[in-house]
Design a protein that fits this description.
By secondary structure, this protein is of the alpha/beta class. The protein is built from 24 helices and 13 strands. It has helices at residues 34-53, 63-71, 110-121, 133-138, 141-164, 183-186, 197-211, 213-217, 237-247, 267-281, 310-323, 345-348, 364-375, 386-391, 398-414, 422-434, 445-464, 499-520, 528-544, 573-600, 602-615, 620-627, 637-649, 660-666, and strands at 58-60, 75-80, 84-89, 100-104, 179-181, 226-230, 252-256, 285-290, 331-337, 355-358, 471-475, 485-488, 617-619. Strands 5-7-8-9-6-10 form a six-stranded mixed sheet, with helices on both faces. Helix 1 (34-53) packs antiparallel against helix 5 (141-164). The radius of gyration is 42 Å and the shape is elongated. The two termini are 41 Å apart.
Amino acid sequence: MPQQSSPNPPTPNQGKGPDGKPPQPGPPRFGRGAMGWLAILGLMLVLLLLFQTVGPQATRKTWAEFTNIYNEGSISEVIVKSDRIEGVLVENSADGSSGRIMTTFHPSAVDHWTAKVDELTTGNFTQPPGPSFWVTLLFSPLIFMLLLILVVWFLIFRAMRSAGGGAGMLGSFGKSRHRVLMKESTGVTFKDVAGVEEAKEEVEEIARFLKDPKRFMRLGGRIPRGVLLTGPPGCGKTLLAKAIAGEADVPFFSISGSDFVEMFVGVGASRVRDLFKQARDNSPCIIFLDEIDAVGRKRGGGFSTGGHDEREQTLNAILVEMDGFDSGDQIIVIASTNRPDVLDPALTRPGRFDRQIAVALPDVKGRYEILQVHARKVKLAADADLEVLARGTPMFSGAELEAIINEAAIIATLADKEAVDHEDLEEARDKVRFGRARKSRKVVEKERIATAYHEAGHAVLQCLLQDADPLHKVTIIPRGQTGGATFSLPEDDRNNYSERFMLATMRVLCGGRIAEQRQTDDVTSGAAMDIRMVTSYARHMILEWGMSDKLGFVDYTPDDGRDAWTTEKIYSDQTASVVDAEVRRLSDDAYREAESMITEHWDRVVAIAEALLTYETLTAAEVNRLMEGKPLGKPTVSDLLSAEAEKLSTQPTSTPRRSRDADEGEQGFGSVLPSPA
């Protein structure tokens, strides 16, 4: 949870001692909050009651016994109290008792027993004054509970009022939980942002305006009140906001949309007002609302239980504060979300968010620039080709590209390499997208053969179909949830999907099941993902892209802006039957044509499958050699193991220190096993 920050940012040496080091924390101090004062009061009352009740112990006697002992001369002093008569015994009394004796009576008969004691002692007794009326009233149970409740009420609400300040009785709940960042604390500038040049240029204008507002207002222009950053997760929306904070010499107020929402109604609106109040006191400044869809969703839609909606009150407060700016406030609100379709129209209109900047997934040039930015932090080998890696990472976000560089550095470190080579980059890419390679998994030979023919079917069709993406490599090493994988390497980024590309891709997906079934005369669940993707492609082609002659140029997908609780269908049952028939037709056509191509080139499928069983991983060049009927001409895993064993057997056995190669050989020759990359 973000910590509450003051409007004035801390100086670099604030909170440090004379030596420049932060002061050491002292011994803990006793808190004087409501509970502390309540504990002190309770302890005092308990001690008072103890002192009232604790005294010399007295032996209980009847009045007749008391009279006899007194007549014997064993009592030196008689004391009459409100509810008992006490007698102080002389030392070595005949009764054998020591200390005191007493006889009790009802407090209402105190006058009667006082007269009897006066008659017995002929007036030689003492009678201390009883407790006052106020003391008796104070220690009565009802008054004690009432006073306790009043003290607790006073202390608790006094503490809440003092903590809340201007937020009223809600205390600190109504205070904004933003963080104030300055240029020195972010460590991010526009040099660290790559791959989103258009969005970068637009936010650079914001920084220039805050540095020199008179230049932009010279011709009558006004400050843009809001900037909305939209795009998929991991594309750099928050990074752009940090870059603005790092470039503009103004305070940067950062808060998440979820920080406005609390269990109390009205707290979110109070925090919004407090945030904008502090922003006005520190203008010019920037307010960054991360994940604004948490409070900025459309009003009036969805399920509602009635009454006041905390989210809508918070949104109303944001709308009022953004539209209430003066032209001289110089406050810019920057918000980010990956769901712009669910935002309220009143929030996205001009005058509140004047600009909507789309931060899309980077293209191949953008991915190359992003990889270069993150590669500055690691040591790359000479064969590390970031351009090839950029081509092989279509639809990767900036966050995933950063994870690839980081994983590659970790892989190279664990392998005791001096630098990160291209093999590490390829392995890191596969690990980020598909998961870690499970080389230690024991695979049944029958399952291994089925996987090899399955991937060979994909690879052969990907080589034969010109409209599909070019093949990159194929492997049968288990990775993530898959037993094998066939990787493609798109030549260019696709912004639109043609019908030929979709049909060719569907045929490639069908090739795995066909080759596997023909070899093993059985089908397995390994084609589940292929079936799901073929069905998804067919539905997109029919429902969204108008690639069906029977359904025509019509969009049958549901509207994202419709009420989530509406059950009304957007097309009739007859149309639904046509949609199902068209999906089945496209799938059957793809399966039938893929089966024909697999049958025609079955010898190529067998060659690639046998090579996979031998080498486990094949590159695109090696698959092309097999497609041309040429041998690979590289040693197998068995050859490498035999060569390593022979090398170890020729080494002298009297060496006092075991070599690193010998250790690796005893562990299963892990250093010579082929890598999936």
